[in-house]
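Hi all, posting the design record for the shared folder.

TITLE: backbone redesign
STEP: 1 of 1
STRUCTURE INPUT:
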């Protein structure tokens, strides 16, 4: 039985990951640490775990691994502390807010001899797995272009504070699409052009919309819209859509459109009830197996770094008004 702790419930994904841990037969969630005692105690009670206010005691409480779900700017500190304690680590995306921090985290884990994974659940969505398999089998031939979106509700809280999040919607949502396209196509990003702004009236000091245009190895052109444009009343958190234009055809996928339309008289709202695969469960199951077998998770720290390189280049492009190289 793998003992996996959760480091911070600042990110809402922590609640799903914790539920997945408790549902897996080969894993357990014995401990929670959070620098917000109220939030941490509530989460620990909800998932029947012990709450630790002291980080050192938490890290040395007999855990095999941890899932880091703190504010983005704290990822490096959390990962380095967990690596020093000899624990396997799954870190919420983005892996870090800067390329330098991401590289330091990877180096710390390599030095400690522990596995580092990045939380990109899109790789475990059944729809995207099928797209990956079809593209890698050559069904579309050469991929010429891609058009993508990741639109979501405005998360508020620390996400709206650039000092804690490292950026806005462009930071929050571009990493998912960048990683998915790298995984599907097997290509790397080489150039990025970005325009961003506060266009939706959200209460944030960072961008709530980003229009990102990228080029991959071999000349594949990618357009991507990252935004917090969904209304509070929208039936779900948002979307991840990808349209691939290939030598042999076109393929469009709405990654999380496995849903039923529900008209609920109790809430007097139109709601969506999801069906099909649980991408978060796939992500957490993969991490637990990596901890058990003592190997790297399927989505590595290096994968997280590659996505951070894209977002850092996007913000650099927005500041200069020019297309920039991903590895400047």
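Okay, here is what came back for every position:
SEQUENCE:
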């Amino acid at each position: 039985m793998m003992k996996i702790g959760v480091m911070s419930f600042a990110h809402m994904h922590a609640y799903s990951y914790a539920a997945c841990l408790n549902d897996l037969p080969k894993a357990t969630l014995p401990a929670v640490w959070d620098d917000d005692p109220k939030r941490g105690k509530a989460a620990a009670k909800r998932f029947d775990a012990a709450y630790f206010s002291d980080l050192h005691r938490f890290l040395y409480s007999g855990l095999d691994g941890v899932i880091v779900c703190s504010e983005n700017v704290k990822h490096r500190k959390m990962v380095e502390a967990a690596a020093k304690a000899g624990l396997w680590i799954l870190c919420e995306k983005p892996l870090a807010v800067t390329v330098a921090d991401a590289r330091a985290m990877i180096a710390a884990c390599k030095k400690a001899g522990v596995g580092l994974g990045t939380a990109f659940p899109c790789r475990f969505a059944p729809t995207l797995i099928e797209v990956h398999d079809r593209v890698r089998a050559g069904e579309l031939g050469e991929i010429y272009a891609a058009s993508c979106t990741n639109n979501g509700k405005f998360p508020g809280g620390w996400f709206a504070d650039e000092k804690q999040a490292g950026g806005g919607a462009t930071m929050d949502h571009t990493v998912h699409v960048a990683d998915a396209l790298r995984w599907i196509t097997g290509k790397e990003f080489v150039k990025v052009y970005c325009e961003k702004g506060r266009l939706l009236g959200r209460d944030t000091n960072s961008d709530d919309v980003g229009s990102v245009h990228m080029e991959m190895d071999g000349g594949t052109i990618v357009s991507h819209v990252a935004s917090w444009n969904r209304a509070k009343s929208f039936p779900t958190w948002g979307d991840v859509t990808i349209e691939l234009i290939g030598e042999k055809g076109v393929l469009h996928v709405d990654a999380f459109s496995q849903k039923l339309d529900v008209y609920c008289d109790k809430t007097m709202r139109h709601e969506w009830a999801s069906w099909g695969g649980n991408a978060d469960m796939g992500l957490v199951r993969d991490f637990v197996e990596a901890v058990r077998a003592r190997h790297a998770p399927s989505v590595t720290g290096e994968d997280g770094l590659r996505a951070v390189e894209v977002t850092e280049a996007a913000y650099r492009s927005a500041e200069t008004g020019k297309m920039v190289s991903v590895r400047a």
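COMMENT: The chain has a mean pLDDT of 96.
Let me know if anyone wants the other runs.
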